[in-house]
Amino acid sequence: MKIDCFETQQVRFALGHIMFLARQAPASVDSGPVSTNSHGTRILGVTGFFTAFACTAVILRVYVRIFMLKMMGADDYIMLVAMVCSVTILAFVVLEVQLGVGEHFGNPHLMMNYSQIVRWSYHHAWILVIGITSVKISVGIFLLRLIQGKIYRNIPMPPGRSSVEL
Question: What are phi and psi of 160, to 5 degrees?
Answer without folding.
Answer: 85, 0
